[in-house]
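In response to a reviewer's request, we include the raw inputs and outputs for one of the modeled complexes. The three entities were modeled together in a single run.
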Amino acid sequence: MSFTLECPNCGVREVTDFGFGGEISVRPAERPSFRELNTYNYFRRNVAGVQREWWYHRSGCRAWFIAERDTTTNEVKSVSLP
Amino acid sequence: MSRLDQQPGELIDRTRTLSFTFDGKKVTAYAGDTIASALYAAGRRTFSRSFKYHRRRGLMCASGQCPNCICAVDGNPGVRACTEPVRDGIAVTHVNARPSLEFDAMRATDIFGSRLTPPGFYYKTFIRPRRLWPLYEKILRNAAGLGKLRSFQPEREWRTEYRRRHADVLVTGGGLAGLYAATAAAGLGADVVLVDEGPEPGGQLLLDGRGRELAALVAAAAAAGVEIIDRGSALGCFDGLVPVWQNDTLHQIRAPQHVFATGAIEQPLVFAGNDLPGVMLAGGARRLAALYAVCPGTRAVVATTSDRGIEAASALHALGVEILAVADLRDGESAAAAALKAEGVDVLIGHTVVAATGAKQVEHATVTPVGATGTAGDHNFDCDLVVVSGGTIPASSLPLQAGATTTYDAERGHFAISSLPPGVYAAGELAGAEEAELAAWSGELAGLRAAAAVGLGTEHSAARVAELEQLLAGAERATVTVAPPVSGVGRGKCFACICEDVTSKDIHLSIEEGYDSIELSKRYTTVTMGPCQGRMCQLPAVRLMAQATGRSLGDVGVTTARPPWVSVPMGILGGRPVEPAKRSPIHGRHRELGATVRWAGDWRRPYDYGDPEGEALNVNRAAGLIDVSTLGKLIVRGPDAGRFLDRLYPNRLSDLAPGRIRYGVISSDAGRIVDDGTVCRIDDETFYVTTTSAGAGAVDEWFSWWLATWGGDVRLTDVTQGLAAINLAGPRAREILAGVTELDCSNDGFRYLDAKQMQIAGVQCLILRIGFVGEVGYEIHCPAANGQHVWDALMEAGAEHGLRPFGLEPQRILRLQKMHIIVGQDTDSESTPFGAGMPWAVKLDKDDDFIGKWALEHYAQQTPATMLVGFTLPDGELPTEGAVVLDESGDPAGQVTSARRSPVLGHTIGMAWVPAAVAQDGAQVTISDAGRQLRAEIRTRPFYDPDGEVLRS
Amino acid sequence: MNLDFLTPGTGADVVARSSMESQSRAAAGRFELRDGWNVAVEYSRSMDAAAAAVGWADVSHLTKLELQGESDALDAAAGARLPFGAAVRRHDAWWCRLTQTRALAVGGQPVRGDAAGVDVVDVTSSFAALTLVGPLAREVFARFCAIDLRPRVAPVRALRPGSVGRQPAIVIREGELRFLFLFGWATSEYMWSVVADAGTHLGGQPLGVDQLAAFPIAEADGA
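The model returned the following structure tokens for the whole complex.
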């Protein structure tokens, strides 16, 4: 895995510059049932295709941002600030 | 020495003589020689013994593709003699033959044992009796292999390093096509790097004696600004990043545009005895002659499927090699063949070679009409060289890794590139342009396109692109005949794979046994898994399988091309041996004090100063100083800072008074402990948060992630590395601190969990009165640039009070005496604050939502299965951390997380997860530790100062 | 209470020290007290190696302030519009925008205290710093840094936060042949060894801060 990613603040860097924050999931707004809570905590959609996910520019500006990445090709379609 | 007269393109410098040894014997060489060319010139024909049968193997490709000349140089195995330049004084040794190359005892496996070693023999022949397998394995492992790595190298013998290079266009392959591509792209202003495997660029041109033309091309490329990396092997293509190994450097080249001009790999023919020394690829024979002026043989038979072999025969003929016959597999006579015939060479149209025999090298060769059965049509020749050319395969591994695809081209008899992803271009033979002119056109076209893709181009260049496209579309291609998968069956072993000694028969057998897909066959027979990585055996194996299963080659397909494309020393991949380490600003002092320094996460930390128990005891009896600069430190500021922390911690922090400190556990939304530390309020809008040393980075990321998610007027600053932190603790700590500040250090003036700002020895410090080690303690935070200054001042002031530094290990003893947990040591990803015995760290009555609230509400209602408690054991009984806690029926039910001898208590103390039922003072549990059973007594309150009277005094 | 404990002490009896001091000393640097900091000002060897290859100087003493606030407030504090990807030279300091709401001022004596709507935190000893100068400075970076620093891609004043030597860092191209890079204070000793290892191999040498003058910083921006 050696793709590059464009940090919205710093520009293009090697993927090793970044921390991966996982796919974007929504925290329940209201008190969830225990089952919903476990789904939120432990289950991921694990998409084979384009997914929205969190990245953190650990070695640079130290900002979190959102990337749309094809998990099958590592092609990054877009990046944006949250 | 069988050197030829000077050749027009030779790479050797006849004025400089070098010498080296091969298996202890001295060999002389010219500067510019490879190990193999020098050895061949000196008369050596056997270069190695084969992997399984220990058959003699000689030079075949002379271009680093086949496995035949692998040797060890100065003890480093895996070196290809045919591409490794001779350096003066090196010691070259053979691999995989015992006792010597000329007499190899393991040759018996070929003569007697091949029935014992069919494909998959590991699972067939040597499985019974089962108890003997370890012995078999030892023998087999000894018998196979490509040399021995030295088991221990005290230090690196050569410097290896990385070099990052960004470019607009990377051209891989420096033949005609690559040179044209690089020059065309650079001419338009692109930043171009050209990588070539050879000692100098040129590819096929080098063999054709077109040295002057070549020099002009190289000069033009250099003049256009192309950086040429010669003797550089591209190892793979990783999402646009191409690592290139050149001597002691791993260039890591990142480019948006890639031109691959990697050429084609000449294929052997599969016939009986096709692995004998003296059976050589046409390209190999020509390389020896043209580049090193070494005559490959005196009497030769040539077998070919295209004009490649004809050209080789013609070149060798011109050098005075007697060409006994040329067996041309094609059924028509090409112009080149006719020309050769006119020179008096016997060209047998529609013939091929079926057998080569000889004791130590080729002595006889047999040629028959293609498809003939029996020996009636045989022509037998006494010869010392069989030159073969079985067509070519495009060297497509790198473009395949870059996302290209291939399909079977029935006309050429190989898998050709059928599609390329954006930003990837193929040129030269790789793109099917075999003739020099076509190769140049296709190279120029690829270069112009690559430049255009990075925004460089002119009207003229656009017109040239169209022109080149037209030229290439209209070009005619030379004919090739596809060789039969195997010729000469029944006349001896026909090797489909010379790396792993797999014969055509072995592949048939594996198909009969059901391994009829190419990927399965690969894993079963190990064909394509040897050092050539399929260069010589992929196509023969596919052809054999297609023939045996009645499928087309396209249906059989090829195996996945994986990096590395060439074998590469691990040291090259390792780069420089400098490990990123963090060190406290006081580290120099620890060194001077003789500290035992070890890794603690990514920090180098003093574990002790020689006497861990004594250091711990001194903290309990007098005073100690420990460098805790590794603690994570965060400034959390802003109008919403208090609310923000209330949402991140299960306890309440917004009501903390300025100048006060509170301990907090951070939990995840799953209610599990993530980290812990202290929070100190500086002023209304400013908090100073400390985290564990290991958790510093993660907590900073965690905080900023939640901030990014929630928003709010909060500003985070990580000052972990900006501040030194020193913990001064012990009964005498107060006096020592009082001696270096103006401050009222009395218990009323500076209470437990108070924070004060004050100067120590002229430096502004933040002092937190906390008690991780269980004594009156002050955690002193000051700028890293002054850390050493403050440390020195404290050490000096404490000298008369018995102050001694203490390390991480004594701190672990001290905190264990207080049952203070270490997150990650005593807790794991499943631990909740309730299970860890810290229900007080969770305030479920907080009105607002906080991270982990829902899960913690749930766990608050449950009795955890296991709980974290303390235990004691008699002195001398020290369980290993990780030892198993047994339940009443003797089943595993928990584990020991920490155990130490407490010097102040004189016995063993520890912490463990035990079944909730026994998590009470005085209960007994059994700890099973490596065969021992220990009876421990449970304790739920700190072993030392259980009521915290000392701490708060 | 306040955050004064973040500002290195440089009073009469206090000396602030870089964590690369012992390495500078081992390389025979001559030290002088400069504004309370013990600074390697000069090495006895000639400047030839740096002029021909590369030189590196410990400039960890440079003041670094972190500014946080709304984007406009950051520009106002700097007195100039702070773009992404380029540092702005004002008041002998580099003003570096890292994010919409965070900037860093490096060097000089930038305005302290709270500019309107901007939180200022002294991070002087959070970041150590080295200046690399010379014709091979870029080639030295290439030995341990994947950031594209080619002149066309990273012109003078380019600001490139990113990994250097496998550690978080911020690179500023200060001049034609001059780069400043900041990294975590605790990685000082490591980073010096990485730079010295690559730099020495390429024929370079350490420099004192007084020897940097031969490689000037780009002129101040008018903006």
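As requested, we also summarize the result in words. Chain C has a mean pLDDT of 93. Chain C touches chain B through 58 residues (CB under 8 Å).
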